[in-house]
């Protein structure tokens, strides 16, 4: 059950983040607030179902960081340093793309300047990020079956002749 929810939450994360990276109309402060609220509801649901140990909440980390990126101030070099230290699960390419797509919804917000984006790129240039922008929503985590040893010893097994397993010998 835990593995199923980890996979499901990864798919939610990948699809939502990919839409965020591809659609200019959703890259705003208000979308960041809405995302963060919805993610907190998912995390609360996991706690309520006692699935915290499943790793499902950790798969949402890139989406959480993207929501926080949309909500942070984006003006000074201190803001750039804060973004770089906060967004560890996002690649440089993803951070820059979100900042380029950021669209102010009201008159109190401003577009992200090119100088600020260059400052972010300069701060993140030593990162060794994978070259892809979008997440692979078809990624599958390996299924792990727990090993439960049998209480039956090999000495006590009797192989009936009707199975035609004469080639097996007890050692």
Number of distinct helices:
7
Number of strands: 0
Sheet having the most strands: none
Average pLDDT over all residues: 93
Morphology call: elongated
SS-derived structural category: mainly alpha
- Please tell me the total number of domains: 1
Helical content stands at 40-55%
Order of helices and strands: HHHHHHH
Uncertain segments are: none
Terminus-to-terminus distance: 40 Å
Question: Which strand-content bin applies to the residues?
Answer: under 5%
Using only C-alpha atoms, the radius of gyration works out to: 24 Å
Protein name: MYO5B protein
Pfam family, one: DIL
InterPro entries: Dilute_dom, Vascular_dev_regulator
Organism: Rhynochetos jubatus (kagu)
Descriptors:
single chain; 7 helices; 171 residues; mainly alpha; 0% strand; elongated
Protein described:
InterPro entries: Dilute_dom, Vascular_dev_regulator. One of its GO terms (molecular function) is GTPase binding. This is MYO5B protein. By secondary structure, the chain is mainly α. The chain has one domain. The chain is built from 7 helices and no strands. The longest helix has 21 residues. The chain is elongated, with a radius of gyration of 24 Å.
């Amino acid at each position: 059950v835990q593995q199923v929810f980890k996979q499901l939450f990864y798919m939610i994360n990948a699809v939502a983040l990919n839409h965020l990276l591809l659609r200019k109309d959703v890259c705003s402060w208000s979308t960041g607030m809405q995302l963060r609220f919805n993610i907190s509801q998912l995390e609360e649901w996991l706690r309520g179902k006692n699935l915290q140990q499943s790793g499902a909440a950790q798969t949402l980390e890139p989406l959480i960081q993207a929501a926080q990126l949309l909500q942070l101030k984006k003006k000074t070099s201190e803001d750039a340093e804060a973004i770089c230290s906060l967004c560890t699960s996002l690649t440089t390419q993803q951070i820059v793309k979100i900042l380029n797509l950021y669209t102010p919804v009201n008159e109190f917000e401003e577009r992200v300047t090119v100088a600020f984006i260059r400052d972010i790129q300069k701060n993140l240039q030593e990162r060794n990020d994978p070259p892809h922008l979008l997440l692979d929503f078809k990624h599958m985590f390996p299924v792990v079956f727990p090993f439960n040893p049998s209480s039956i010893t090999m000495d006590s097994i009797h192989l009936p002749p009707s199975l035609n397993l004469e080639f097996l010998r007890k050692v």
